[in-house]
Amino acid sequence: MIKRHGVIPAVERVVTKREVSSGFTALAEMGLQDYAFESVVLRFPESFSQEAVSISRDRMAQ
Questions:
Q1: Which of 6, 8, 38, 51 could be bridged to 56 by S-S, CB 3.0 to 4.6 A?
Q2: Is the separation of the CB atoms in 41 and 54 below 8 Å?
Q3: Which segments within 6-48 are labelled E, that is strand?
Q4: How far is it, in rounded angstroms, from Cα 49 to Cα 12?
Q5: What is the pLDDT of residues 20-39, one digit of tens each?
Q6: Which residues of 7-46 are buried (b: 16+ CB within 10 A; e: fewer)?
């Protein structure tokens, strides 16, 4: 997906999907949410849509 769409659009697609990605779930179960795409979005909110930032904020708060 990154090769086809580029990094930022690929991250946007993963984060804004209705279902939480298996990668996020696995990282959260191990206490490694800081490595999830959602965390990247929150560190660089100016590079992503408001929707991606909002969804990321909500997921990280869970």
A1: 38
A2: no
A3: none
A4: 8
A5: 999 999 999 999 999 999 99
A6: ebeebbebbeeeebeeebeebbeeeeeeebbbbbbbeeee
> Which helix or strand (DSSP H or E) is residue 57 part of?
helix 50-61
Whole-angstrom Cα distance, residue 48 to residue 14? 12
Q: Could you tell me if 61 and 53 are in contact, meaning their C-beta atoms sit under 8 angstroms apart?
A: no
HSE (side-chain half, CA atoms, 13 Å) at 44 = 10
**The pLDDT of residue 5:** 86
